[in-house]
Amino acid sequence: MFVQNEAVSVCLLLNRRTKTMRVIDFRAGPSHAKRLFVLKLAQREGIEKVYTLVERDEVSTWIKLGFTREANIPAFYKRSDAFILGCAVAEAMAGNFRLPATMDDDEPEEAAPSAAIDFAEKTVITAKKHAKGLSDRQLPIVKLGMPSAADVKKATDKALRAGRALTAFEPFGRDGEQTFYQIGAKGGFELIARIESQGCFGNAFLELLTGPKTDTERLATVSALRTLCDDFLEKGVVGCFALAPSDDAALATAFVHNGFRRTGLLANHLIVGRERKDAIMWSRKLATPAGE
After folding, report:
1. Bridge partners of 245?
2. Domain extent for 76
3. Domain with 70 in it: what CATH number?
4. Spatial CB neighbours of 86, under 8 Å, sequence gap ≥ 6
5. Which residue from 125, 118, 70, 60 is spatially nearest to 263, judged by alpha carbons?
6. Rounded to the nearest 5°, which phi and psi values hold at 218?
7. Of 224, 229, 256, 291, which shows the fewest CB atoms inside 10 Å?
8. Distance between CA atoms of 170 and 50, rounded to whole angstroms?
9. pTM greater than the 0.85 cutoff
């Protein structure tokens, strides 16, 4: 959805399944009119959370508008990081907001400590312990294939009905190139994955349809991530990032084992089954850009 008028010039990406909306702003700078327009439209459309992804110099603008810095994505712009800031619509509309007269434009502040962040950190600590325990385990060999659109839809519908889907592969950006993978291993393990990439920046947003539920699935998921990252590196991807529920230690183990780091926590960002969950941002820099 594109909107351009005297107050705003934005592209709004609505995810009606998760009730989230990404704001892509084409007119820099804070204004009360921009904030009010975005929040009112989100409320009208039944959106519960609004977020934006920006470069470092725009972080202070969105903090002025009442958004909270939730995560960063290393090497998103190939040689610089991106930052994600979010806002709960109901809370924002209920409060009495005043645009600050001034604000320092220095280093973006980290999110304040909270019970949610502490919980996510415990998940990461557990994952690190489990990842160490995999050092002497033999990982299964997985094979990558390219599924048909019908195969993707069938697997996604099945995962949604079972309440296991982490995503329905909705667009993350407005012009990303999408590539789907069908991953299989002995024992009947099957997984659909997708990356949404921007060639100009060399980044890739990775989504796994489901997380592991058994030890066999956990080992296969670890191997799948390793094989996927090797494929991304061959394709020239500089940085890879993904989102996963903050309470999924098994999936966190797969990311930790493959060199991903927790670089943030997105509040109430995912819907798994009928439950809204916080999402850990997992990031990994795969390569150094040419010329550095």
Report:
1. 279
2. 2-94
3. 3.40.630.30
4. 49, 50, 51, 52, 67, 68, 70, 266, 267, 269
5. 70
6. -65, -45
7. 291
8. 16
9. yes
